[in-house]
Structure formats: structure tokens, C-alpha cells
Amino acid sequence: MKVNAFAATEPKAKLRPFSYELGAIGSEQVDIKVRYCGICHSDLSMINNEWGMTQYPLVPGHEIVGEVIAAGEAVKNVKIGDKVGLGWFSASCMSCQECMDGSHHLCANNEATIVGRHGGFADYVRGHWSWAIPLPEAIDMSKAGPLLCGGITVFNPIILANVKPTDTVGVIGIGGLGHMALKFLKSWGCEVIAFSSNPNKKEQILNMGANQVINSKSPEELEGIAGKLNFILNTTNVTLDWSSFLSTLAPKGRLHTVGAVLEPMAIPAFSLIGGEKSVGGSPLGSPALTKIMLDFCVRHDIYPTVEEFPFEKINEAIEHLEEGKARFRIVLKNN
Fold this sequence. Notes:
CATH architecture of the largest domain: Alpha-Beta Complex
CATH class of the largest domain: Alpha Beta
Number of helices: 11
Low-confidence stretches: none
Helix content: 10-25%
CATH superfamily of the largest domain: Medium-chain alcohol dehydrogenases, catalytic domain
Number of strands: 17
Largest sheet: 7 strands, mixed
Distance between the termini: 19 Å
């Protein structure tokens, strides 16, 4: 099958039309006609080879929603005609301890949708049936794509940390990831404090459900909530004064990062020891948890705030994201 896509041929290159042939479908694989695909900062990192593992030509795109149009003979759970989503992962080994335990996203031999293969900035994409997540019937497909990456990335920590509806929680960075975390935690029942360094976002952040907005660069404002938070989720990829944020945690509180902070995080030991506090991190989530998250989103009408571009304007959309203008996620529509 011929696939028409958009690809980068070198770091920082504009994406150009690119075609390739998909070989014979595997027995456990499905082919998905792409209806919508989000643009994630991870796509930019792969385009620019920031992680040193990009293979060119690269077809990015890993926040995919669409329709199954072909299925191998051993496919389970989904069938031709089903509406599905495909995120960062497109396959896992299905036999290791992690897969057998239901933690497919921790499989050491998993396959990422845009690492060493072509992703969803295309009319078709292929993946293993286990990662083709069935979409709830009532979901808005035009806004669902970012949930398959950014959404599950911030939903998984809520489960891992056993966050309770009675908890007071904080979200650092109200951008593409953080604004979804804010919406999840608000619907979870929590009191939500948003940490942002951009005062221009304050009203919008409050309108999304935050109970309070704290200037993340203000020591005085951080001191004002010392010892109050049960859980903090960091969604930024920059170095911050982690000691100050740890001081806002209540005893047994947890600081959890999903932001890819490239520098070592300076965590003073005594800031953890005294209050039995902890620091953790996580990647996305399992297929089963992703399905639960999608059901939760439909039940509570939770969607990312998106801006939509046609596939033909893909480079304009990428530039919009690179310039920090996205509010808050970008979705490409495939006509």
C-alpha cells in the first residue's frame, strides 16, 4: 500500500511531501487511516535529532486517531471499521515480565511510533493491535489525538501516586501537558494550584479550573503555601529551584516529573528525609490505562484546548508551536 506523508530529511528541515510503500501486513498488525494527528514537542525533538536517535527521512506524528482499514489474521480486540487511537508506542513484545504484568509501556523492547519507523503525519500508519486503543463512541475525534500522548503522560502519575479527591495538588507549567493535568485533577476532585511564570495566562488558567495560580519564580509566593501540597506534577523541561517546590509538599508528599529536564535535578536529601517525601517520574501509560483515561475524558467532557490546522499547512503549524504560540495543543486534520 502506498502511503503519502510529510517527512524531514535532515535536522531542523521543513517537512516535505514523501511517499513510501507499506509491505505486507503482519499477523498482529493493523493499518489505520489517519483522520487527525496532534503535533507534540517530542515530534520537534525528533525532527531536530535532539535525542540523537532520529533516522531520516523521518515521518513524525504520534498522537493519531483514525479508522482501522486492514487487520492481520491474529489481531484481537479491534476490527476493520473501528475508531482507534495510536500514541507514542506502536508495539511491545507481549512476552516480557512488564508486558505480562500489564505494564506494556515499560517493555524494554517496545516500538515507538516515530523511532526507526514512519509515524502519523501521513494518510496511513501501522501498529500492533494492542496499542490501537479503541475510542469511546461519544469521543470528539478532532480533539482526542493529544490525549494519546500528552494526556496519558499526565494521567498515569495520578494513578501511580494514588492521588485522592481530597488532596491539594500542584501543577508546574500550564502548557501542552500542564493544562491537561489541571483539567484531570480538577475533575478528580482535587484542590488544584497552578504554578506558572507567565502572568498573561492567569485568567485562562483559572477558567480551566485552577483554584489558585502561583508565580513559579516568586520565593514569597512559594513560601506562602509551604507544607500544603500532597502531590506536585512537573510538566516543564527546565531547571527550577526544586528545593523550594519540595518545601511546599506536606509530609509524605510526592514530586513527580514528566517533563524531560535534561540537567540533573538538584534534590537536597534532607528536604526528603524530614517529611518522608519522595521524587518520581514516569513515561506514558499502558494500553489498559489509556482506555480508562479516554472513558474518564468522555464522562467528564475533558479535552485538550486545541488549535486545528490542515495537513497542508504542517510547517506553519510546527512554526506556531516552536514559537511558543500554541494554546495549548495543535492538531492536524487529514481531509
